[in-house]
From TrEMBL:
Residue ranges constituting the Mce/MlaD domain according to the UniProt record: 20-94
Organism: Neolewinella antarctica
Domain of life: Bacteria
Protein name per Swiss-Prot or TrEMBL: ABC-type transporter Mla subunit MlaD
Amino acid sequence: MKMIMTLMFVVFLASCNNSSTLYFKTVTAVGISTKMDVSTSGIKIGSVENIDLQPDRSVLITLRVDPEIRIPNDAVVSMKKIDLFGKHELSIDGGVENNYFVSGDTIQYAGVVRTTSDSVSIKLIKELFRALGDGPKADSMR
């Protein structure tokens, strides 16, 4: 009886797993941290679970994502800046295939993506200094 109860408990725990695991490899983990948000189309779908250095000195990143989100096999993950203060998130974007990643698959990493918000942020900071008049002139911030 005790054995059956233990087995039922293990099955219950396995059924409670409400996320899928995806992996990607990169040459550096700079800027990536555990619990970092993972999004698609600007909506959070998961987080970074683990960061492991591999024997070949590459870095294996483990992502936990919502299993209800279907991610096309040709999608890529990249790091994007999401606010003026430099906060980043991992974003899974693109993909048009009708085949989808399943838990345990490895997704391609596209690296850090620069967005137009980077240049907009710099312009806003320059304008702030100009308006305050106390900081360096905008032309000297190059």
